[in-house]
Design a protein that fits this description.
The complex is a heterotrimer.
Chain A: H1 2-7, H2 23-28, H3 33-57, H4 66-88, H5 90-96, H6 107-117, H7 122-152, E1 154-155, E2 158-159, H8 174-199
Antiparallel strand pairs in A: 1-2
Helix pairs in contact in A: 3-4, 3-6, 3-7, 4-5, 4-6, 7-8
Chain B: H1 4-14, H2 25-30, H3 35-64, H4 73-95, H5 97-103, H6 107-110, H7 114-125, H8 130-158, H9 170-185
Helix pairs in contact in B: 1-8, 3-4, 3-7, 3-8, 4-5, 4-7, 8-9
Chain C: H1 3-53, E1 59-63, E2 70-78, E3 81-89, E4 99-105, E5 110-117, H2 131-135, E6 147-149, E7 158-160, H3 166-186
Parallel strand pairs in C: 6-7
Antiparallel strand pairs in C: 1-2, 2-3, 3-4, 4-5
Classes of the chains: A mainly alpha, B mainly alpha, C alpha+beta.
């Protein structure tokens, strides 16, 4: 079923919560919701591109050199995304900083190339990439919403929590990133354990 | 603190690569379950980081800048690092089998360790000289080693503690890392 | 090495070579398509920043920078006569260098400051980029050294610190005082 390729990445095989891949940007770019969405979009774009290219050329590449080839393809796509962002959304590009070029070494992109795109056709690979992209963006969005709301009382730059609430700045700082991610992971683990208990 | 010492100090404590910049987290969470693995990984990362910094500096200032190809930096750096890791592995296997046995398993993982590529890119962005780049990479690997070794010691003990099942393994590790990060916050602002 | 081996290696090399060539070609094309937009935007950003710190902007000409923290000085001229100076200064803050642009008019007053680049703690030192904090510098006379205060400013040369980010505030003021010292010595009204 093709539709499964799309939906599996969102919840069941969520790249961050279930596969535990791509942890670095999920902490570094989630101090505000805007950054998280920007990162998610850039990431999804690279993933779709790399999955398309790799599923197209998968039969032409000898097995011994497939990793270097994938890395070259991914790095080129990332560089293109970097230039587009620098030209048209400079504020976001500046905020994400070194984490845009670092999409190259994001384990999810290479992981999907290795695990999926090199074995499946173009359409399935595109759906897989879209699903994984949405799943990763969703995970970043959840972490970023907590951090921005608790750390500055805002969401997407709009004040949500008013006067009696004092923003706890720690949530925007690195330490808060670890705490938030720890709590979100605990929540996910709790839900999965409860689900397993129900089914079993 | 613009001195070389300043760069090292700041890379170890103030902008610690893991606890403040979030680079190299995958390996930090992945291999820190026991001290021995953590030690092997940090040795391999430190070694490759130093070589990669020198190599990338050479490639950037020797090849990319003279031909105005700075925009290819991400592409060239990752290829240079991947090739370097391969070479180091082959060289070690042949002439330093003991060292290869200790570090070997971690070497292939390092190509996709974002700390290495991250430091190479940061050195270029900050316009560091060769000496400063080397200082930055030494400081960064010291910071990496410090964080991952301390963290692995804590995690070895955490395993035996009682806690709600949903907090086991990763969530509690992340919260521990958060406290380590708070401890380092006290260091910032020393200039 | 047998003949098959060498032809296999040739095939590997060729595949890698072709992929690299195609990819680099693509990146080079993207670069040529976006570089003008990026350059134009960067130039527009600098121009807008000059205009913001010095609203009476005229023709700009580069002056010799003295080194140290000050990295750039632009002299603004209207009708061939200098009507102000724009300094770029880089003091060290909490998390690295800050790049600050400062405008000064012929009455020896600040016309505005703008923080161009900083790597301060988000949420704390980052507040220094907010217009409300930067606005207090507008119209400040340079007669005396600027001083950071945590209370409400009472004197002309007082600068209100950012709550919980005194180090950033001090760094900005340190940069401004460096500019002040150089300006008073070289360009202050009557000398320049």
């Amino acid at each position: 079923m093709l539709i499964n390729e799309l939906t599996k990445g969102i919840i069941k095989d969520n790249p961050l919560f279930v596969q535990l891949l791509g942890t670095c940007p999920s902490l570094a770019t989630t101090s505000s919701l805007t950054n998280a969405l920007g990162m998610g979009a850039a990431f999804t774009f690279v993933l779709i591109g790399s999955n398309i290219v790799i599923s197209l050329i998968r039969k032409l590449i000898p097995d011994q050199v497939h990793i270097p080839c994938y890395i070259v393809v991914i790095a080129s796509l990332v560089t293109v995304v970097e230039m587009i962002m620098n030209a048209y959304v400079p504020a976001l590009y500046a905020a994400l900083g070194v984490f845009v070029p670092l999409i190259v070494v994001n384990c999810i992109v290479l992981g999907r190339a290795e695990a999926f795109a090199c074995k499946n056709g173009v359409v399935a690979s595109i759906l897989d990439a879209i699903g994984m992209g949405i799943g990763y963006t969703l995970a970043l969005t959840i972490i970023a919403s907590f951090r921005e709301l608790l750390g500055s009382g805002k969401l997407l730059g709009h004040q949500i929590l008013g006067a009696p609430f004092t923003p706890a700045l720690i949530f925007i700082l690195p330490a808060g990133a670890f705490i938030t991610m720890g709590c979100v992971f605990a929540m996910v683990a709790y839900l999965r354990q409860r689900g397993a208990a129900h089914n079993g | 603190m613009d001195s070389t010492f300043g760069i090292i100090f700041s890379a170890v404590f103030i902008s610690n690569i893991i606890l403040a910049q979030f680079l190299g987290l995958c390996s930090f969470l992945g291999v820190s379950k026991n001290f021995k693995n953590a030690f092997g990984m940090s040795a391999a990362v430190s070694f490759v980081m130093l070589l990669a910094t020198i190599l990338c500096y050479g490639v950037y200032h020797g090849l990319l800048v003279p031909y105005h190809l700075e925009y290819l930096q991400t592409l060239v750096f990752i290829l240079a690092i991947a090739a370097l890791v391969q070479l180091v592995e082959m060289f070690m296997k042949k002439s330093m089998p003991a060292l290869h046995k200790a570090m070997g398993v971690y070497l292939p993982l390092i190509t996709t360790n974002c700390a290495i590529l991250g430091i190479a890119l940061i050195n270029v962005t900050k316009n560091y000289s060769l000496i400063d780049s080397i200082a930055n990479s030494i400081g960064t690997s010291l910071g990496y080693t410090m964080a991952i070794l301390l963290f692995s010691c804590i995690r070895e003990r955490l395993d035996e503690d009682q806690m709600p099942p949903c907090m086991r393994v990763l969530p509690i590790a992340l919260i521990t890392a958060s406290f380590m990060s708070i401890a380092l916050m006290g260091m910032s602002g020393i200039h | 090495m047998s003949k098959e081996d060498s032809s296999f290696i040739t095939r590997l090399t060729l595949t890698l070579l072709i992929i690299c060539a195609v990819c680099v070609g693509l990146v080079a094309y993207a670069h040529s398509a976006t570089k003008d937009v990026i350059a134009a935007r960067a130039a527009a950003d600098v121009k807008a920043a000059y205009k913001q710190v010095f609203p009476e902007l005229g023709e700009l000409s580069k002056e010799k920078a003295p080194g140290g923290l000050i990295t750039d000085i632009q002299c603004s001229k209207k009708g061939g006569k200098a009507n102000g100076y724009i300094y770029t200064v880089e003091p060290t803050g909490y998390g690295g260098k800050l790049t600050i642009m400062v405008g000064i008019d012929q009455k020896n007053k600040l016309t505005g400051i703008k923080i161009l680049k900083l790597s301060e703690t988000p949420g704390l030192g980052m507040k220094s980029t907010e217009p409300t904090w930067q606005a207090q510098f507008k119209g400040k006379p340079l007669k005396d050294e600027l001083v950071v205060t945590k209370q409400d400013p009472t004197k002309d040369n007082d600068v209100r610190a950012i709550t919980a980010a005194t180090i950033t505030s001090r760094a900005v003021v340190k940069g401004l005082n460096e500019v002040r010292a150089h300006y008073m010595k070289t360009y202050a009204n009557g000398k320049g």
